[in-house]
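Lesson 9: reading folded outputs for more than one chain in a single document. The general rule is that every protein is listed as its sequence immediately followed by its structure tokens, and records are never interleaved. Here is the first one.
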Amino acid sequence: DLQRAPSRPISLVGMHTSACISLNVIQEYLGPENGRLMVAYTKLSIQLMMLVGQAYTDTREAYLQRTFEQINTVSHELRTPLAHLFSYLELLRAGEFGRVSPAQERVLGELIHEADEILLLLTGTLDLSRLDTGRVVVRTEELRLASLFEELVNSTPLDRVAVTWSVAPDVPVLRTDRVKLKQIVGNLLRNALRYG
């Protein structure tokens, strides 16, 4: 009874295997003289597999769209307070609310770095969800590699490690996505500091 049969997920490979076995069984049962019935059954099986494949694709697209929307919402909800926190930390470090001691400046630098890490993590998570749906956004701008390196080295805690870098004078101005390039180079720098 189909009404009481337990529902199980159907894979396309399983359907293809089942259709091939069914075709072989029906061919043996009908014999070679009923070729027209075999052709009709083969066409019916192919159409059924195409319908199931389309339903699978539609369901996956709808699931990815819902997931993307949820991640997008969470990311934006978290980015706003994080941006405020980041701004206040910068103001504190700049001495806008009073003199900052060297120890406080060091702690503020670490907090700014951690806030920047969380922001990069949120951006990376959003980009991963966009990859699944084919909606990765690339925001190109012109930037000098030296300024990117300087920004990364200044914002990364360097405990008892000397980091030196240089950019050849003939390296042209880059036209790329600053955030994504900063993520890539920043990951390389942090991994080198952590594991090198």
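And here is the second record, again sequence then tokens.
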Amino acid sequence: LGVFALMVVVGDSAADRLWSAFRFSPLAKGAEARLDAWITPPSYTGKPPIMLADGGITGPRAQDNRPVGVMEVPDKSVLIVRAGGAGIRGLTIQVPGEDGTQQRIEAPAPVNRGDVLELKFDVRRTGTITVHSSDTQVASWTFTVIPDHLPKISMTKEPERSPRGSLKLFYKAEDDYGIVSAEARIRRLTPKADTSSTAWAREQKKGARPPYERPPALTLRLPRAYAKTAEGHSLHEVGDHPWAGMRVELTLIAKDLAGQTGRSETTEITLPERRFTKPLARAVIEQRRKLVEDPRDRPMIAKAIDALTLEPEDFIEDLQVFLGLRSVYWRLQREDTRAMRNSVVAQLWNVALRIEDGNLTDAERALRAAQDRLQQALRDGASDEEIQRLMQELRQALAQFMEQLQRQAEGQPPTQGNNPNQQMLSQQDLEQMLRNLENMARSGNREMAEQMLSQLRDLLDRLQSGRMADQGQNQRLGKMMD
């Protein structure tokens, strides 16, 4: 009678309430059903994973075990949801879609009873994610996605060029989590067509022009690895590149830890080229440039090289120079391949350097090689013994270079307006600079050592160019020796 009376009072919902006592949700069996969920930010962010559910707890927790509301997570964080136990009949998550609607993602049906179901999802949009099992919602979390912005990079000063073909770039880069690499990309500007009144009288070239060679690769030196902000300068030797002296477009590009790239504004510059003073060296470089500009001029270039060697006893004192030019002539006559042209371009450059600098060319090449090896060792974290060995190589190469430079300067009049005593660094000054560099490297401050090595490159380049006497360079030299 009591049950009948209660059913009359409850009305139509009595049956549903009675049956609800015998319904069991997928997670109602306690230990037989378990839900685990966490979110893992990308490793490059340095942020720890966030636990969302660990069986009995279905919400994220702070360190003091208080529930956390809306969570901020980095872009591309991975949500992992696992469910298992006898009470699990399926696993589905609903996530924010592209058009603002909810997107449904369902785990594959279990093969065996009690199999663990797992879903992974890259969180890219702000919104609420819900977890369902057998059409019943068992968990819900709200995320705010922190976007990973593109890295930024820009030039802080106008590029500087040296008479020996060096390009100095000044830059600043920044990113949310860290800069991986930075580089300068160069694109050659297409020469304008000749529309002069005498263009019709010039020889018409046959066939299509061969493709241009690749632009020089300019990797910017980063002061610190994976720094969020990087500012500095980078020195590049581009005087020997076939594009030297040509108008190009320069764009700086930075890459962050996520693989995203940012670009600076594009600027037009003229790539620096080596200045040659001796007439024969200038003539050789002129033919080299013609070969780079249009390889279809190869027959005319071969004739010009032949003419330069008709009477070598009058103006070619170096036998290696004569043999090098004759070798170029015969190679241009007998072969017309891209590999041959590139080899001839490099050979003409070496011949011109031999004419201009004599034995100094070999000493300069050995010095640059020693500097490159030491710089790479500093970046790779080489041992103190390896640094000491490379420093000794640098000392020997620098001593030979300075000796050759001194011999070249003997008998030449000093540069007008400059003090000849300031044109050459003393051996004691250089040795003090090298000791400071080695001490920096061995004390663990290799970033400063690498920066000091870069300054040494710059100083030697300016010394060769006869520009060491200016006040700013003397101040920089004093700072390096302190």
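What the second record shows: The longest strand covers residues 136-146.
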